[in-house]
Design a protein that fits this description.
Oligomer: single chain
Largest sheet: 8 strands, antiparallel
Strand order of the largest sheet: 3-2-4-1-10-9-11-14
Number of strands: 24
Structural class: alpha/beta
Radius of gyration: 25 Å
Length: 593
């Protein structure tokens, strides 16, 4: 998974702008970076492995000449992070340069064929076959556009790529299939990017490409065509996000900034209630609900299961998007299938959405206006989280939860629940005020090798999400468990070296979870308790306590109890000398399978 950018400027060098754009996409990958520009001397390329600032200081990326160029930041899939595998990639003669996001599934077959025809490869990537295929058809007499169109008929997989060529020096051409790609219109200047934050400094006027659409960008403007070569009249949309929203705003890391933005994200998402009521009014009668998601969004879906079954009495399934295809024959045509994706571009989720669309009504909960999921689902609910740059999801998770609560409340016409949801932003601010104590607590536990997180009912997904955050950014092994499952195996791993985080809000699950706390204490575990400020029993059992306002009901606890776990993971990460915005082996919005 990677990020690509491109620009055509009027009177400025492209390289500094491209460098700025790829820096704003570093959450999508940071194994290597490269730029290619066109000038009177031809195509100029600089690239290397490493983080963007390191490579830029070493190679002076911003000094490349020319007003036209493309750039790339990489998260390795095919081939190790090496200078040779960094993008852009070129053809044999260096006349064509390509940057690519996605996976070419049949690259080995294509590469073998091209090598047998005399093409010379220098990398282990799947992307390089694109450059050589275009070269092959270009030499057969096709112009660049025709060569690209011929090349994509041979490619299997997902891709968004951009191409520059010395034979057509004032143009950037490209295509999108199952990988995100947007085009930006400035004042006589034009841009492309994998995601909006890359180009917000330059324009907020965006064209969203759909699958199989190609584009031609030159100093006169942008032309978009369908797979049959027909020119399309694509709408230009204005992004609500401002450039400032994608900046750190004085925080040391994007993750901490985004944790603190959660009250505002919830407040903004709550304004969606009127649109959600309109959507619910259109619903036929459903007999079942199925949530489909990946990672953090899967944990939000588990909360949805408890809500929909508890409030509506609707049987509710939660499925991993990557596993959904194996249940295709069991899709209930009377079910509402809900897909949750921050980007609306996650490949596994989109694949599952297309399967479900054949038999059932579908609803997408997404954060990105104009994304593929918003165009393909029957119904759409937008989270209003704004851009999330940190790799570990925080405010998008909370916003997804808020949408799920609003949907459930609207479907069961529970006005009391809708009123209670309005209190969440202020309660969340109170929880965030606990940060100093959590930071101090992080110092006690930063050297642990393993953590367990436990909870029951609504607190079980919170335990899972807390464990995921810890794994993602601290590299400490963390496991989330339904507290009642401890005795079925995990207790064998508990001792005085394994901290246990117990999520114990007041309510139905409280007393039984307390008994699980006593079980792990009997085996020497240090317990970090999350509970009500007036819970004297939990406080007496826990080694450390994170206290919440006592009025928070168990039903709403997932919206608040996860926040200290985000902060705990963040501060442990920092104390271990890790950059929480750039965890190893991970990148934002993984769109490849």
């Amino acid at each position: 998974m990677c990020g690509i950018v491109g620009c055509i400027l009027k009177n400025d060098k492209a390289a500094p702008v491209l460098l700025d754009c790829v820096q704003r996409l570093e959450y999508r990958g940071y194994d290597s970076v490269g730029l290619a520009t066109y000038s009177s001397s031809g195509i100029n390329i600089k690239k290397d492995r490493g983080k963007i600032n390191e490579v830029s200081q070493k190679l002076h990326l911003d000094e490349l000449p020319g007003e036209i160029g493309i750039g790339h930041v990489r998260w390795a899939t095919h081939g190790l992070p090496t200078p040779e595998n960094a993008h852009p990639h070129t053809d044999c003669e260096g006349k064509i340069a390509v940057v690519h996001n996605g996976i070419i599934e049949n690259y080995k077959e294509l590469k073998d064929q091209l090598v047998s025809e005399g093409h010379h490869f220098v990398s282990q990537t799947d992307t390089e076959v694109i450059a050589h295929l275009i070269e092959k058809y270009h030499k057969d007499g096709l112009n660049l556009e025709e060569a690209i169109n011929k090349a994509i008929t041979k490619l299997h997989g997902s891709y968004a790529f951009a191409v520059i060529s010395t034979d057509e020096p004032n143009r950037i051409l490209g295509v999108r299939k199952e990988s995100p790609l947007i085009l930006g219109l400035g004042d006589g200047e034009y841009f492309l990017a994998s995601d909006a934050p890359a180009i917000l400094q330059h324009t907020r006027r965006i064209i969203y490409l759909a699958d199989h659409e190609t584009f031609i960008m030159d100093e006169e403007g942008i032309t978009v065509k369908d797979r049959d070569g027909r020119v399309l009249d694509k709408p230009v949309e204005t992004i609500r996000w401002t450039p400032e929203m994608a900046q750190k705003g004085g925080y040391p890391h994007f993750m901490l900034k985004e944790i603190h933005e959660q009250p505002e994200a919830v407040r903004n998402t709550l304004f969606e209630v009127s649109d959600i009521k309109k959507i619910v009014h259109q619903f036929p009668e459903f007999k079942r609900v199925t949530f489909v998601a990946c990672g953090t969004s899967y944990h939000a879906s588990l909360v949805g299961k408890y809500l929909f079954e508890g409030l509506l009495g609707l049987p509710t399934d939660v499925m991993l998007a990557s596993e959904f295809e194996f249940s295709e024959k069991a899709i209930d045509p009377h079910a509402l299938v809900i897909f949750i994706s921050q980007s609306g571009e996650t490949a596994d989720t989109l694949k599952a959405l297309r399967i479900a669309n054949k038999k059932a009504k579908t609803l997408a909960i997404v954060n990105v206006l104009g994304s593929t999921a918003t165009r393909e689902a029957d119904y759409v609910i937008f989270t209003r989280a704004g851009p999330e740059i940190g790799v570990a999801a925080t405010k998008t998770y909370i916003s997804q939860l808020t949408c799920i609560y609003l949907l459930a409340a609207c479907m069961c016409q529970d006005e009391n629940l809708l009123e209670e949801l309005q209190t969440i932003p202020d309660c969340m601010k109170a929880v965030l005020s606990l940060e100093d104590g959590i930071k101090e607590m992080a110092g006690k536990y930063k050297d642990a090798q393993d953590f367990f997180f436990i909870g029951r009912g609504f607190s079980y997904p919170t335990a899972l999400e807390g464990a995921l955050k810890l794994k993602e950014i601290t590299y400490i092994h963390g496991e989330g468990y339904a507290a009642g499952e401890l005795k079925h195996g995990p207790l064998a791993l508990i001792d005085d070296a394994v901290p246990v985080v117990a999520v114990v809000p007041p309510g139905k699950s409280h007393d039984r979870t307390l008994s699980n706390v006593q079980e792990v204490k009997a085996r020497g575990a240090r317990v970090i308790g999350l509970g009500s400020e007036d819970d004297q029993v939990l406080s007496s059992e826990a080694s450390d306590m994170i206290e919440f306002p006592h009025q928070i009901p168990e039903l709403l606890s997932p919206l608040l109890y996860v926040v200290p776990l985000q902060l705990l993971a963040y501060h442990i990460s920092v104390k271990r000398g890790i950059d929480p915005d750039k965890p190893k082996n991970l990148a934002k919005c993984v769109t490849v399978e």
